[in-house]
Specification:
The complex is a heterodimer. Helix content of chain A is about 15%, strand content about 35%. Chain A is α+β, with helices and mostly antiparallel strands. Chain A has two domains: about 80 residues, Rieske [2Fe-2S] iron-sulphur domain (Rieske Iron-sulfur Protein); about 200 residues, Naphthalene 1,2-dioxygenase Alpha Subunit, Chain A, domain 1, CATH 3.90.380. In chain A, strand 10 and strand 11 form a beta hairpin. Helices cover about 20% and strands about 30% of the residues of chain B. Chain B contains ten helices and 35 strands. The longest helix of chain B has 25 residues. Chain B is elongated and about 95 Å long. The chains are: A alpha+beta, B alpha+beta. Chains A and B meet through helix 3 of A and helix 3 of B. Bound molecules: FE2/S2 (inorganic) cluster and fe (ii) ion (FE2). The site of fe (ii) ion has 5 residues of chain A, from loops. Fe (ii) ion binds next to loops of chain A.
Chain lengths: ~300, ~575
């Protein structure tokens, strides 16, 4: 059988996007780390200036020493929000914006990553979904009997090319590390990239500002992904370890549910599953993916 | 023989022992994953292992005894029908659309659970025991999973026969070796489970199980070694059915219409002084899914249609139980049921409808019933009971002898208070104490005579209960009808336009024009004259449609409702 380059299976939109592959700080200087992006095996390291270098790997082993000067065939690289991003095609100049990240008094941190045996778009949908809080994040992000998902607004912003859900409200027993009692929290969700989502939530400490939590999904294959997490918080009391542990707990709870979801790729045919009003944002997301022509990690609509 | 996805034969898919109390077992047949669970009433359910909402395996769900609850968003599916009864994200709405998971037929025999890749609504090949089944007291062996093609596993089993006594092959993937019967469960193209039956319980069961287990393990090892040398067969690729188009389009208004279901009056009894109980059973199989608070239309022998609440608990779909008030001055509805309908008679009923949905997200639920109004509240109490949610049920009757469904009330675990023969003033104070002050996530449901309804509504309002927390249902339209408007109706299918003047209903005008249109109560309560609206804005005056159905402006009751626009286009 002639070997087929996995790149040929990737739809052009996905191929040309910036894709997250690692937390910048965790990438060793002069040593190889391996990862897989869109079925393509990659190797990466940082050069002496601390800048990431990424290339398609053949037989490199993790932990091998490498002189980045010798790597000539490099993939495009950028850094943003504490992470390394690369692309297998021709990416646009800039990453999508998260302006809050630059505010001086925020605690910005990458909260590690977690591998999930489900497609990246399924994981995005889970991130957008409030209805599962009482069942999956019991006593943290929700608790029975407060299960109602109130009406909220969704739009696809033409100019920014992103899905935006606003006025999302949910009763939460302990919405963030610094919250001590149940309260209704208000969320805004953005999906500025087919495999990334940013969440703004009312901040227990300051009514006028919002905590930011973002999930960047690295599509490893059509039915596997790695979730990389970013928090940009106003919280002044919790330590970084606390905040990290909190987010790790949340994603640890989602993982077993997502891994029991079938099919693992996200079906874009509206008749594949049964949406309800609470799923408005997911419906908009599926349509948006469909219109963009994304086929990686999804089951496209039969034409 | 090659395996076929559509092979309709019955195969064992689990041992009865795999289904302990409140457990959900994950099985597989011909490439299809199955969620298998036993309800508290003993019924075994074999469902496609996928929640219709977002595809999560139901085998990781929670068996609540009469409903299965999905782990991801808590949707509940009813025992037997696999119909969705509750969507927690929208606790105030009844899932009006028919959301129903795919179910497979099931039989339990010889300590095994059997199923087949057939449509359970339309079984082409009913379960038949294997030849010679009647001669044994069958005792199941431990199942032996084998990673090899089911056909090869069957062939391997045949080689275990001694030369002088070859294996007898049985229909399906089964054979008899001496007096032991073996079945091969085709899990997938390359996977199988051997399930054996001994003709009787052996004297030393542990010893016997060990013996057969060793023998089958050796066979398994041999088969798996052979299978490893062959190219692995392509796994079977079952497709998931699409959901219906109206489920996929998000707005959830689809009003069931027209279909009636024939039922048999299985039992008729005096439940209390003045209350007759009727048990209405399906002629075959089970009745449709209902939610607590739902009612059915009963089509009476004299052509009238009357509404009665279902009293059943969750997952009880073999028959509906209703209570009928024996009224001396009745208009002929209840009277016909009580006086002329007998046990064994056939009746037609509608699919259940729910205008009185129960939220299951309350921290406190107060149920207040007066007289025959107990019927929907009994059903609600049973649902809350099964989910271990707190509630207080207050039941008012004039006399002790008028307490209906007493035995059923006594079987409840919540707080049930029966108030008999209270003077009017005391009823008021009892209601007031029962309600108490309102706080977040408390709800009251009331059903009874209009005076009681009013009393609960005003008392609750005075004690700080907001409108959304007070739930009641109308069976009669007591609201004054405003028939002062005048407008045109265009009947799209009949190609005529009629003028409806003030003082006349659309129904009357249509009849005057020579059309035959069905109706029953003619006060906007029964739903018989439900008509699809194609264009124009409706002035709803009925009590049949709920608020969201009214807002959808897709259908109307022509007996009372009118037009706000100058013209209405109807699908008639
Ligand atoms: S996936 Fe089952 S309730 Fe949502
Ligand atoms: Fe989650």
């Amino acid at each position: 059988m002639p070997s087929i380059d996995p790149i040929d299976h990737i739809d052009p939109i996905t191929r040309d996007l910036w894709q997250v592959i690692a937390a910048t700080d965790e990438l060793p200087v002069g040593q190889i780390q391996r990862t897989t992006l869109l079925d393509v095996p990659l190797a990466m390291t940082r050069d002496s200036a601390g800048l990431p270098v990424v290339w398609r790997r053949s037989d490199e082993e993790a932990g091998d020493d490498v002189d980045p000067e010798n790597i000539l065939d490099r993939l495009p690289v950028t850094t943003g929000y504490g992470f390394v991003w690369t692309s297998l095609g021709t990416p646009s100049a800039a990453l999508f914006p998260i302006p809050e990240y630059a505010e001086a008094d925020r605690k910005n941190m990458s909260c590690g990553s977690i591998g999930i045996h489900v497609s990246a778009p399924r994981a995005v949908e889970n991130f957008l979904d409030m209805g599962h809080f009482p069942y999956v994040h019991t006593d943290i992000l929700g608790a029975e009997p407060h299960t109602e998902v109130k009406e909220y607004d969704v739009e696809v912003s033409e100019e920014r090319d992103e899905v935006l859900a606003t006025r999302c409200r949910f009763m939460q027993p302990r919405a963030a590390k610094s919250a001590t009692h149940a309260m209704e929290v208000e969320y805004v969700y953005r999906v500025p990239h087919p495999f990334c989502s940013v969440l703004y939530k009312s901040c227990p400490e300051d009514e006028n500002r919002r905590d930011v939590i973002a999930i960047f999904l690295q599509p490893v294959s059509e039915d596997r992904c790695r979730a990389h997490l970013l928090q940009s918080m106003i919280d002044s009391t919790s330590t970084i370890t606390d905040l990290r542990r909190f987010q790790q707990t949340i994603f640890g709870q989602d993982k077993p549910i997502l891994e029991n979801q079938y099919p693992k790729r996200l079906p874009l045919d509206p008749r594949a599953e049964t949406p309800i009003r609470a799923d408005k944002s997911a419906i908009a997301y599926r349509r948006w993916l469909s219109q963009k022509g994304i086929t990686y990690g999804v089951i496209p609509m039969a034409s | 023989m090659t395996l076929s996805l559509s092979d309709p034969a019955w195969y064992p898919i689990a041992s009865s022992d795999d289904l302990p109390f409140r457990h959900v077992y994950q099985g597989q047949l011909l490439g299809r994953e199955l969620a298998v669970w036993r309800a508290d009433d003993g019924n075994v359910n074999v469902w496609e292992n996928r929640c219709l909402h977002r595809g999560v395996r139901l085998s990781i769900g929670i068996n609540e005894g009469a409903e299965l609850k999905c782990q991801y968003h808590g949707w509940r599916y009813a025992n037997r029908s696999a119909g969705c009864t509750y969507i927690p994200a929208h606790p105030a709405d009844a899932p009006a659309r028919r959301i129903q998971n795919k179910i497979y037929p099931v039989a339990e025999a010889f300590g095994l659970v059997w199923s087949a890749a057939q449509d359970s609504d339309n079984i082409e090949r009913p379960f038949a025991p294997f030849p010679g089944a009647e001669s044994g007291q069958w005792f199941p062996l431990r199942p032996m999973p084998v990673n090899a093609a089911p056909e090869d596993v069957l062939a391997g089993l045949a080689t275990l026969a001694p030369d002088d006594r070859p294996a007898d092959s049985l229909p399906g993937l089964a054979l008899r070796l001496g007096d032991v019967v073996y079945f091969v469960q085709p899990v997938d193209a390359g996977r199988a489970v051997i399930r054996g039956l001994l003709p009787s319980t052996p004297a030393d069961a542990t010893q016997a199980l060990r013996h057969y287990n060793e023998m089958l393990s050796k066979l398994r090892d041999r088969l798996e070694r052979a299978a490893a040398k062959k190219p692995a067969p392509e796994p079977l690729a079952p497709a998931f059915d699409k959901v219906s188009a109206d489920l996929a389009t998000m707005p959830d208004i689809a009003i069931p219409r027209g279909n009636t279901i024939p039922v048999v009056v299985k039992r008729k009894w005096t439940s209390a002084d003045g209350v007759i109980g009727f048990e209405l059973a399906a002629r075959e199989g089970h009745l449709p899914t209902f939610q607590p608070g739902a009612h059915i239309d009963v089509h009476l022998p004299n052509g009238l249609i009357r509404q009665y609440s279902i009293t059943n608990g969750p997952g009880e779909l073999m028959s509906y139980i209703i209570g009928v008030k024996q009224e001396s001055a009745s208009k002929g509805g209840s009277k016909v049921l009580v006086e002329t309908v007998r046990q064994g008679d056939m009746l037609a009923i509608s699919e259940p409808r729910n205008n009185f949905p129960l939220r299951r997200d309350a921290t406190r639920t107060v149920l207040i019933a007066g007289g025959i109004g107990i019927t929907p509240l009994l059903s609600m109490a049973r649902f809350l009971d099964k989910s271990s949610l707190p509630y207080e049920l207050h039941y008012f009757t004039r006399a002790c002898e008028q307490v209906a469904f007493r035995g059923d009330l006594e079987a409840l675990h919540g707080t049930v208070l029966i108030h008999t023969g209270l003077p009017r003033a005391e009823i008021g104070t009892t209601i007031s104490t029962a309600l108490g002050a309102w706080s977040q996530a408390q709800h009251v449901y009331v059903c009874g005579p209009s005076a009681m309804l009013e009393s609960v509504r005003t008392t609750a309002a005075a004690q700080g209960w907001p409108d959304e927390a007070i739930h009641f249902e109308y069976f009669k339209n007591d609201k004054p009808i405003d028939d002062s408007s005048a407008f045109d109706v265009e009947l799209a299918r009949s190609a005529m336009t009629l003028h409806v003047p003030a003082g006349k209903t659309i129904l009357e005008v249509m009849r005057d024009a020579g059309l035959t249109v069905p109706s029953s109560c003619e006060q906007g309560a029964c739903g018989t004259c439900l008509t699809t609206v194609i264009e124009g804005e409706v002035d709803h005056q009925d009590v049949y449609l709920n608020d969201s159905e009214k807002a959808a402006n897709t259908c109307m009751m022509t007996c009372v409702s009118r037009a706000k626009s100058a013209r209405l286009v109807l699908d008639i």
